[in-house]
Amino acid sequence: MRQIFIVVVLFAGINGHSQERQLSVRARDLTQALAALRASTSDSQAQGRYLTTFPHDYKEFLNLFDLGHELSDGADYIDALSLTEEKHPTELGRLLVGLAKDAHYDADAPSYLQHLTAVYAGKHAEIFIELFDQLPPQKQTQLITFLADVENHGSYPEYQAIIDAFKRLGEGNLAIRFEKARAKREKHRND
Fold this sequence. Notes:
This protein has helices spanning 2-21, 25-39, 44-53, 58-65, 75-80, 89-100, 109-123, 125-133, 137-148, 157-168, 172-190. It is mainly alpha-helical. The radius of gyration is 20 Å and the shape is globular. Mean pLDDT is 89; it is low at 1-20.
């Protein structure tokens, strides 16, 4: 009886392990695009392929990277997006703004997306503003709220960099919107 139990447990373990290795076509394509990008980080085509293959819809993003999903956590995949910014800054901005406009803060993948989007907005403020202005007002508010949703703004200099960049570009009203979102988040945290 004990031998049968051991065989069943081993078979279940092997079967479960093989199922873990099987990725969806979407996850497999993204994994292959990441490998190609890492093999040649300065290759514009590899960068473009990665940007094209990366999820462009927030639900699809969560379906790949959310806790318990195929590419759970997603840190390596999200961090690799920064490798595309030199040759594809507008496309990267379009991807980040497109995802962040629907995003809600959460641990892991959403927090990595938040951080990368904030860094991007501070470095490429002109492109970010152009893309931001194309959003409907409710999506603009959603994006600002997503970027402002952190525990401690004192340890989040990327957010202040966004505000500073907007002010340098003469976008004072937009900077004020970001400042108000930060103040609202800090007030909420202190209540």
